[in-house]
Design goal:
The protein has 316 residues and is α/β, with parallel strands linked by helices. It is built from 13 helices and 9 strands. Helix content is 43%, strand content 14%. Helix 9 crosses helix 11, helix 11 crosses helix 12 and helix 12 runs antiparallel to helix 13.
């Protein structure tokens, strides 16, 4: 299905609102997490969704790809998954007497790494270079990944059987970590009455394509950040490290790279809201999702600690 060209006079925020509206018809009652997922994509980051099975994690990834007109692949992470199953493998062509590389599912615009923490660490690490460098090094060759490139990984709570916690180096590759949670009563009733929403994904009309999304990402990166806003971000980073008299009880604070990711996410959130500059409210909205999984205790506990930091640090 091809996306219909839109008039250049249509503001980006209007088109993004149309994407959010369409996604909300598939993932009912979860407007907040959907907005964060879109902001993560606009900020050229990767998204980690930690939640119990059956709340729509995989459906969100598929619906996001369909709404934005992007090529999509799903990798089911299991205990016997090999790195080659993710990246690809070179197979000898006896007729041509050469090895030919067969690309793995990682070579798509949107990649769902489903239940990533059920795979062994060696396979988990196969994603590190792809997520950070947007390339794959295999058999002495470096192959670029498509642009845009967005990994959505889901993981089950670590207390569940067969789940392996992700190492800190892997967690840091994710710009955001979010939860979907149970729907409220009204949303759940709508889901029960309407049936499985995954069946509706095939009928979604793309509101963009890969080239449009890349342009939106450039627009997000150009959103203005005032010096006072940078002071606020730096104050949050300092507070996370126990500075300014703040004791968050964490083993480690936020790194400068986390600060850069926070600014990128806040810019994307401002673009969604149609604002030409980042406001403190944009930082506050994305901060728990950007900082939570980088603080001690995992995504859920870390998000609570991030909320404490927001309460402790005054806006300049």
């Amino acid at each position: 299905m091809t996306v219909r060209p839109a008039s250049s006079s249509v503001p980006t925020s209007t088109r993004l609102a149309a994407a959010l509206s369409q996604l909300s018809r598939i993932i009912v009652g979860k407007e907040g997490p959907i907005e964060l997922a879109l902001a993560c994509l606009l900020a050229r980051g990767h998204l980690l969704i930690e939640d119990i099975p059956g709340v729509g994690k995989s459906t969100l990834a598929h619906a996001l790809a369909a709404t934005l007109g992007l090529r999509y692949s799903r990798i089911q992470f299991t205990s016997d998954l090999l790195p080659a199953d993710v990246l690809g493998v070179s197979i000898f062509d006896s007729a041509a007497q050469v090895f030919r590389f067969h690309a793995g599912p990682i070579f798509n615009a949107v990649v769902l790494a489903d239940e990533i923490n059920r795979a062994p660490p060696k396979t988990q690490s196969a994603l590190l270079e792809a997520m950070e460098e947007r390339q794959v090094s295999q058999d002495g060759e470096t192959r670029k990944l498509p642009e845009p490139f967005f990994v959505i990984a889901t993981q089950n709570p670590v207390e569940q059987i067969g789940a392996n916690p992700l190492p800190e180096s892997q967690l840091d590759r994710f710009l955001m970590a979010i939860e979907l949670g149970y729907p409220d009563a009204a949303a759940e009733r709508e889901l029960l009455a309407g049936g499985d929403r995954r069946a509706r994904i095939a009928d979604l009309e793309p509101v963009a394509d890969a080239a449009t999304l890349v342009e939106w990402q450039r627009e997000a990166a150009a959103v203005h950040v005032a010096p006072a806003l940078l002071d606020y971000v730096q104050a949050l980073l300092t507070a996370s490290r126990g500075g300014s008299g703040t004791d968050t009880g964490t083993r480690r604070g936020l790194s400068p790279r986390a600060g850069l990711m926070l600014i990128a996410a806040a810019r994307a959130h401002a673009l969604i809201g149609g604002r030409p500059m980042v406001l403190p409210e944009d930082v506050q909205r994305v901060f728990p999702s950007v900082a939570g999984h980088r603080l001690a205790g995992g995504a859920r506990t870390g998000a609570l600690q991030a909320q404490e930091l927001l309460r402790a640090v005054a806006i300049p």
